[in-house]
């Protein structure tokens, strides 16, 4: 079975966020245990599995995502990576609709090489600061928000450098009962390449730090678009690999645009 590693939200190899992609040669799912084992073997933040749908009027392919330890409800970078792999394999052109645990998600493939994901927005809601959060992060939160069905905690810090300097206590952070913790701040330089920065930590789902988290931007985009008065913005995820996510808020939906690069293309021999 063919398996790829694709760097998503990346302009060149070894940047952005790597995802495993398996385009299955069957019209149903293999055993969950097998998919989880493959994801553990790949040991990336997410590995995506997709199979073609032949009798579904609302979607073209079914799509699931697994971290090394669990299945997740939503993943942006692995969705972008899957659409990229489909374009390389010439199984889609123009647009593709995915049936997922978060409903039907669309990816639009442009002639310039970019891919735009159409995801549900998760507008953040102000919340109390959980006990121990500041100590776990090693920083004082300016504000904390819940993110609805996304299931993450969104934490605003005082500035870009505070986000970049974070070195959280992963063990302590894993005790915060959310999928992951998104940390963000406004860009230090107005009028630059990006408008806000973020990082994502998910020790509870086996991800110490995710390099570029598309799904997190379904909450980041509504927050910063409202704050900065613009529907279209660019976010920089300030991980070691870094990546840019171009966002556009459209009511209850968010568009996430980026590029992807295949860095490995091989055969999975087991299963």
UniProtKB/TrEMBL annotation:
It holds the Pfam family PhzC-PhzF. Gene3D superfamilies: Diaminopimelate Epimerase, Chain A, domain 1 (3.10.310.10). InterPro entries: Phenazine_PhzF-like. Coiled coil: none annotated. Keywords: Isomerase. The active site is at 46. It comes from the Bacteria. The keyword Zinc-finger does not apply. GO terms for molecular function: isomerase activity. One of its GO terms (cellular component) is cytoplasm. PANTHER family: PHENAZINE BIOSYNTHESIS PROTEIN, PHENAZINE BIOSYNTHESIS-LIKE DOMAIN-CONTAINING PROTEIN. Belongs to the PhzF family. This is Oxidoreductase. It comes from Rhizocola hellebori.
């Amino acid at each position: 079975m063919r398996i790829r590693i694709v760097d998503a939200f990346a302009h060149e190899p070894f940047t952005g966020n790597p995802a495993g992609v398996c385009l299955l040669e069957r019209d149903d799912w293999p055993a969950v245990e097998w998919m989880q084992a493959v994801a553990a073997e790949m040991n990336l933040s997410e590995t995506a599995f997709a199979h073609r749908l032949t009798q579904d009027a609302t979607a073209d392919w079914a799509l699931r995502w697994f971290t090394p330890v669990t299945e997740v409800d939503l993943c942006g970078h692995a969705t972008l990576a899957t659409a990229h792999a489909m374009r390389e394999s010439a199984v889609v052109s123009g647009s593709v609709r995915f049936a997922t645990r978060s409903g039907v998600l669309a990816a639009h493939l442009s002639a310039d090489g970019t891919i735009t994901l159409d995801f549900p927005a998760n507008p953040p809601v102000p919340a109390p600061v959980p006990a121990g959060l500041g100590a776990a992060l090693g920083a004082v939160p300016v504000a904390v928000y819940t993110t609805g069905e996304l299931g993450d905690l969104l934490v605003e810090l005082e500035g870009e450098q505070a986000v970049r300097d974070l070195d959280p206590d992963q063990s302590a952070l894993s005790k915060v009962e959310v999928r992951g913790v998104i940390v963000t701040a406004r860009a230090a330089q107005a009028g630059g390449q990006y408008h806000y920065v973020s990082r994502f930590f998910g020790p509870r789902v086996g991800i110490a730090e995710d390099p570029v988290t598309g799904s997190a931007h379904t909450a980041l985009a509504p927050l910063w678009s409202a704050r900065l008065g613009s529907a279209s913005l660019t976010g920089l995820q300030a991980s070691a690999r870094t990546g840019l996510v171009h966002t556009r808020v459209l009511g209850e939906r968010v568009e996430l645009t980026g590029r992807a690069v295949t860095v490995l293309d091989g055969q999975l021999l087991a299963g």
